[in-house]
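U., I forgot to send this yesterday:
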Amino acid sequence: MAHAIFVKDLEHSFGAKKVLKKISLEAEEGEIIGMLGPSGAGKTTLINILTGQLVPGGGTCQVFGKDCRHYESKDYEKLGIMMDSFGLYERMSCFDNLKFYQMLDGKSVDEIDGVLAQVGLMESKKTLASNLSKGMRNRLAFARTILRNPKLLFLDEPTSGLDPMTTEAIHEMILAQKKKGATVFLTTHNMYEAQKLCDHIVLLNEGEIVESGRPEDICRRYNHQKKIRLHLANGEDVELQQEAQAGEKIAEYLAEGVLETIHSTEPNLETVFMELTGKGLK
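Result:
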């Protein structure tokens, strides 16, 4: 499988402040790669480099085999970008916002209604962007991102500040893009979002990658306790060490019909990040 993104020893500085410190990562075509880190970790800077908005200070940075320093117009056609800094035209309707970008690309406007329907905005196609809720604005920004059927989507905190129902809807839209074969580069500080959506994650802190891999593998790697927690029908909580005797005790509880829940003690991504850096993702 070909690399959608290939980064090796990438560096970048703003003046004397080094914001990316020899980071390396890869993303295969058709996968969702997530980058987790607190504000200021360097996530948005990396997206700006990968999308050709910034020239890196050093290292290798390629998208579909093309050096990000030397993009041509045909290379941008493969990309869809959703970032907070990309504003909507407030005095234009949902339809006209998308029509404007289609016309800039020299594309037909025939697909706009279908995309608005995909993101649940068909009934609001004539509504001005200024009158949209935050969740609807995010849906419109997402619609603009997928309108050109990009091979690679860059989504920078796409659900930040949204209610659970809207967040869930955007998650489903992201997974639908993956199903169509698109690669997704997702930045987030939402641990649940990363574990649900991502095939591979990278933990970034102060411009350095501190850990990477499949979410479940990372959590298992830092499972120092190796215990099993049980909750019984009488309200009692029982903690067992992961060993042969624990299996016998669990079988006993099952036979008696008193076992209500059972959980292993591996940490979540937030806990792992705190262990590695001494601070949380938010």
